[in-house]
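FORM 12-B: Structure-to-Sequence Request
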C-alpha cells in the first residue's frame, strides 16, 4: 500500500526487538505541517512511536487535511475522504512499525483536533485515546456518520480561554458531548488564545504517560 500522506516517524532510541510500543499519530492545524507537532510530543519520544502526519492538500506554505467552505464548515466530500484515508493510514502504519494496536493515540491541534475527535467516533475502541487541542466535532459527524462507541476510549480535550478562532464555549460544548459518550474524559482550559501553552503540554504529556502505563516512576499531579 502506498500511504495517502507524507509523514515523519520517530522510533524510541532503545527499542527492544520483538516488543510492540504505544504510538501517537499527530495531526497538525490548517496551513501548518507535521514539523509543528514535533515539539509538542518530544517529551514522549522515549516511550512512544511518534508518527507525524502531513496533510495532503497544499495551503500557502503549509498543508491541510481538508478544505473549508467557511469557518467551521468543512467541505463535506473532502472531509469524508480525509477520515477514510486517515483510518487507512493508521492501519498501514500499525502493520509497518512495531505499534501496539491496543495503545494507539491521536493528538491533534485545531483542524487536527477536529479530525482526531471524528476518528475517535468512527473508529471507537480501535483507538486507546485521543488528545484534542482547540477543536470541535462537526454537526454532520454527530448526526450523519455511523458512530462507534467511545465508552472505552480515553479523551483529553483542552481549549484556550481566549481562542479567537473557536470561542471557549465551543470547547465546553465539545466536552459536554464527550462526557455523555465516555467516562474517561479529561477537559481543561488554559489562559491562551488559539495555541498550546507549556502547562497544556505538560498536562497532556502526563495524561498520555499515565493512560498508556509508561514512565510511571515520574511524578504526576
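FORM 12-B RESPONSE
SEQUENCE OUT:
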Amino acid at each position: 500500500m502506498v500511504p495517502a500522506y507524507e509523514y515523519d516517524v520517530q522510533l524510541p532510541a532503545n527499542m527492544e526487538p520483538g516488543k510492540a510500543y504505544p504510538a501517537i499519530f499527530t495531526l497538525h492545524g490548517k496551513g501548518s505541517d507535521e514539523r509543528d507537532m514535533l515539539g509538542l510530543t518530544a517529551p514522549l519520544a522515549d516511550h512512544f512511536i511518534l508518527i507525524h502526519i502531513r496533510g495532503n492538500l497544499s495551503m500557502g506554505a503549509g498543508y491541510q487535511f481538508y478544505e473549508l467552505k467557511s469557518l467551521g464548515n468543512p467541505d463535506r466530500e473532502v472531509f469524508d475522504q480525509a477520515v477514510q484515508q486517515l483510518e487507512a493510514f493508521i492501519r498501514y502504519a500499525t502493520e509497518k512499525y512495531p505499534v501496539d494496536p491496543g495503545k494507539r493515540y491521536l493528538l491533534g491541534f485545531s483542524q487536527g483536533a477536529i479530525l482526531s475527535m471524528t476518528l475517535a467516533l468512527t473508529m471507537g475502541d480501535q483507538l486507546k485515546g485521543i488528545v484534542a487541542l482547540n477543536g470541535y466535532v462537526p454537526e454532520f459527524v454527530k448526526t450523519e456518520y455511523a458512530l462507534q462507541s467511545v465508552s472505552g476510549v480515553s479523551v483529553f480535550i483542552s481549549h484556550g480561554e481566549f481562542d479567537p478562532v473557536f470561542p471557549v464555549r465551543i470547547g465546553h460544548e465539545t466536552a459536554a458531548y464527550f462526557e455523555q459518550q465516555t467516562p474517561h474524559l479529561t477537559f481543561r482550559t488554559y489562559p491562551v488564545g488559539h495555541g498550546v501553552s507549556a502547562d497544556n503540554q505538560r498536562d497532556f504529556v502526563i495524561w498520555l504517560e499515565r493512560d498508556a502505563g509508561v514512565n510511571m516512576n515520574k511524578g504526576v499531579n
